Amino acid sequence: MNTDDLSHSFQTPEFLETLANYEEMVRQHRTCYFESNDLILLAEYYAAQQKIKESDDVIKYALTIHPDNLELQIYQCNSLIASGKLDEAEQLLNKLPDQQDEEVIYARVNICLERGQEEKTDSLLIPLMESEDYELDMMVDIINLFLDANNETYARKWLDLLFEHYDKSEPLVLEIASDFYMTFRHFPEAINTYNQLLDIDPYQQGYWLNLTRAYLANGQTEQAFNAIDFALAIDESNSKALELKGYCYLQSLNAEEALKYFERALPNCEDPVSLYQIMEKCCDTLGNDEQSIVYLNKMLEDPTCSDFEKAVCYQKLANHYLLLSEYDNCLKCTLKGLEYDNGFAPLYVMLGEYYLFEDNQHAAEQEFAHAEAYATDKKEIEEQIFRAYFRACYFQEALNYFQQLEEKYPLKMDRYYFCVAYCCYAIHDETNLMKYLVRGNTLLQQFQDGHERLQIPDMMPEAEDFMKLANEILCRIEEGSIHPEDYFDLPEQPLP
């Protein structure tokens, strides 16, 4: 049930006609004839839409008109395996007439892997390989079984066996080797392998795209730019290449330029929803709340958007409306999100922050308590609550809450030192002000966290005077009149 490369197939006129005919048949409770391949593609389509019941229904219907079709039976088996119904899948396999068919054996291997019985796969696969004289395509298929199962040990074992039987410079061998290296994050080896493939075929755009991905994953941004420029030289309109160029800029912390390439990739991209997500993040980084709202609404329009994903989108929408001081829209989006997932903790933080801006601290604290109760990542939710107090200018409460967090997570809260210092500045707490300014200057060497929307200069009164004071403290540290170690009361806190 591999839906990875079928998105174009789902857009063809022939498929769309088949889909329309099938859904009309279902609506009218009729029976129509379809080719088995068309029905499998329909099942793949529903699976890609996360409509598992509809996908299963297609296969069940297909078997009523093609009861002996092995491909359909194997698809049903794999569907049962993917759903965790291993005993049912095994029973179905036992009924199939050709027990030596490679697809039957592959399905049994998948059952073994799901059960954690990888050692049993040798008894299934080695006789098969020997009977086929270690045929190349079959060895590649077997390695892919272990790659799909994320089993590095056995994938490596079969890759080494492949190397024993075939020239390592053969393109198909290099391709499966590169898949192995990328899957298990051996990026230097992947880079070397893709370069070998490009030596064989320098005009293969897919190799340049994969080389770009490997360089990005290995943190080699400059080399990634070079690789993607070669890909674009082959086809400057390729949406995947344009998208990857955007990621190169994003890794270079240039969200503005990244957004331009994502926008160019959007018209022909295979997964616009994922692109909307990253474009929204770019807009958020750039402080463009209005455009973030546009992309979030586009994500909500997607029919495959799950209830949880809708809750996440509404929470983000509420946050952007809050930053735009559109408090009614903030409340509407928060409540709408809770309709889709009333256990999503960040929505309760959002509701609490809304109440802070409405000067209803008691209601806010009740919602924060709900958020903490529902939290799956308690630290992240507690940080969100601190940020809510800070953004709403509840500086004393923010300081108190932060100091509780600092006791719980003493080595993990340093990115907030300047925000906490500003809290102290606003409430004239000079002792703590000095402590957090020195800590912030010592550990961060910057006045704001580029990954957070806690931008003191944009939001707070008297921010300019505060920044001047922070700079003065930095100068005194550098000239030696302030000793940072005097302001760290946590002995395990590492100093640069």
From TrEMBL:
Keywords: Repeat, TPR repeat. Pfam families: TPR_16, TPR_19. InterPro entries: CellSynth/LPSAsmb/PSIAsmb (IPR051012), TPR-like_helical_dom_sf (IPR011990), TPR_rpt (IPR019734). This is Tetratricopeptide repeat protein. It comes from Phocaeicola barnesiae.
